[in-house]
């Protein structure tokens, strides 16, 4: 981590030694992820047995915003938790692909849209105690139709809702996808603080 990546309050603070991997064993490998096991040394010097889920894609997502302040969400069944999830268009970009190319593809494939304007919203560490997955998200506007092409394993519903309704549903706990939640709050911050075009921000915040 470079100094420019650190919070202002961290400047000059001493850090303990980093974790050290003393070996690597691949326990499981698939086209999407690998599970590695490591004899390791903790920052305290204690020996540890550590496992890490290592992803082969960058998680990408985009919050598409129409000129009237409505946003596009997609609904689909998710396997891991066995639930139905409402979220912004999301997917994975292989590590050798520009994540921006990947997220533009997902916007078309899942929502049937392309965008004239994009603003990067977040780069987040998804669950940094046990995975190395990185998520990158954008806000997009200037939307127009594009050919839709969902994955053959997906049945996707597409809805268009007011941005403030999305925030309400996040508050009620009905929208729980982490990238969607984080990006919606970042979009609210950007709309409040000049990070988005004024007319778009006003439409999102209901002050038209």
From TrEMBL:
Catalytic activity reported: GDP-alpha-D-mannose + H2O = alpha-D-mannose 1-phosphate + GMP + 2 H(+)
SUPFAM superfamilies listed in its UniProt record: Nudix (SSF55811)
GO molecular function: hydrolase activity
Cofactor: Mg(2+)
The Nudix hydrolase domain, residue ranges: 55-183
One Pfam family in the UniProt entry: NUDIX
Protein name: GDP-mannose pyrophosphatase
Family matches, as PROSITE patterns: NUDIX, NUDIX_BOX
């Amino acid at each position: 981590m470079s100094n420019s990546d650190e919070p202002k309050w961290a400047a000059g603070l001493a850090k303990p030694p980093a974790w050290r991997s003393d070996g690597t064993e691949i326990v499981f490998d698939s086209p999407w992820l690998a599970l590695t096991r490591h004899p390791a040394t903790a920052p305290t010097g204690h020996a540890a047995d550590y496992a890490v889920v290592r992803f082969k894609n960058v998680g990408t997502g985009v919050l598409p915003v129409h000129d009237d302040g409505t946003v596009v969400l997609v609904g689909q069944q998710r396997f891991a938790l066995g639930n139905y999830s409402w979220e912004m268009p999301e997917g994975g970009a292989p590590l050798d692909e520009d994540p921006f190319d990947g997220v533009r593809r997902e916007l078309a494939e899942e929502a049937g849209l392309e965008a004239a304007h994009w603003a990067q919203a977040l780069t987040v560490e998804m669950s940094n105690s046990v995975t190395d997955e990185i998520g990158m998200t954008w806000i997009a506007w200037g939307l127009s139709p594009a050919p839709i092409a969902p994955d053959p394993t997906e049945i996707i519903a597409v809805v268009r809702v007011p941005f403030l309704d999305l925030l309400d549903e996040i508050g009620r706990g009905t929208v729980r996808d982490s990238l969607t939640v984080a990006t919606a709050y970042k979009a609210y911050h950007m709309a409040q603080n000049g990070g988005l075009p004024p007319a778009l921000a006003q439409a999102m915040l209901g002050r038209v």
